[in-house]
Amino acid sequence: RNGYGPSIFKELDTAINDFSLEAVFDTRTDLREENFRMELYLFDEGMNKLGKIGIRDRLRNFHNRGALARVGEYVDSSTRYKIGQNNYDYNELGKSSMFFFRWERRGLRHTFYVSEIVNGEHVNSLYEYYTDRGQEWTGKVKYIQLYIRTYKGRRDPYLARFNSIRLFELNTDVEDKTP
User: Fold this and answer.
1) To 5 degrees, how large is the angle CA 72–CA 74–CA 76?
2) Is the confidence at residue 77, as pLDDT, over 90?
3) Distance (Å, rounded) from C-alpha 168 to C-alpha 141?
4) How far from chain centre, in Å, is Cα 18?
5) Cβ 23 vs Cβ 103: under 8 Å
6) What DSSP element (H or E) covers 175?
7) Under a CB-based contact definition with an 8 Å cutoff, are residues 58 and 67 in contact?
8) Measured between alpha carbons, how far apart are the two ends of the chain, in Å?
9) How far is the C-alpha of 145 from the C-alpha of 8, rounded, in Å?
10) Rounded Cα–Cα distance for residues 169 and 19 (Å)
11) Would you say the pTM of this structure is higher than 0.85?
12) What are the pLDDT digits (tens) for 22-71?
């Protein structure tokens, strides 16, 4: 409708419950009118969307970088967005920006962390949390989707790349009952 771009789905060998998803997003926009959106979505065994994390440049007039983290399906631009344009959106951040993103789920609690990487250091860091009290997005992760798109009528970015993506199961702490 208002954007174009590829999407890749990968199926995990085994569905996992508690997880950690870590990704490094690498971006470069030489011209201000270059725009993009890079996102990672997680789905359960029934292909229900568990949520997403991502980085975007949404504005024509700035080298804009904004992070996105949402639990569950899309409703509107604010519902269950723990990270978004209200708390992680920078104009004139520079032509080239790299970001580290982590999304963990332990039981009903989702933890999101995003940080810009500058000279190997994490800067402009943010932690946010969401507790799924209604237990609507507790399905086991079975699929991951990688998505990169450009906006209709705008230039493609010089670079919009996932440098690394790691998704792994978190072990449940076991109480030591040794006498």
Assistant:
1) 130
2) no
3) 10
4) 17
5) no
6) none
7) no
8) 64
9) 5
10) 4
11) yes
12) 999 999 999 888 889 999 999 999 999 999 999 998 888 888 899 999 99
Position 66: which residue type?
G
Query: For residues 19 and 171, what is the distance between their CA atoms, to the nearest angstrom?
Result: 8
Q: Which of 46, 27, 52 is nearest to 116 (CA)?
A: 27
Contact 117, 99 (CB under 8 A): yes
140-149 residue pLDDT tens? 999 999 999 9
Residue the block writes with tokens 């998704």: 167
In the numeric block, the tokens 């409703």 are attached to 75
CB 32 within 8 A of CB 116: no
Contacts of 52 (CB under 8 A, 6+ apart): 39, 40, 41, 42, 68, 69, 70
CA distance 82 to 53: 10
**Which tokens is 143 given?**
């699929």
- The residues facing 159 across adjacent strands are 28
Handedness of CA 115, 28, 152, 11 (dihedral sign): negative
**In this predicted model, what pLDDT tens digit does every residue of 10-29 receive, in sequence order?**
999 999 999 999 999 999 99
CA-CA distance, 106 to 97, in Å (whole number)? Answer: 30
In order of 58, 62, 158, the CA distances from 93 in angstroms are 13, 9, 16
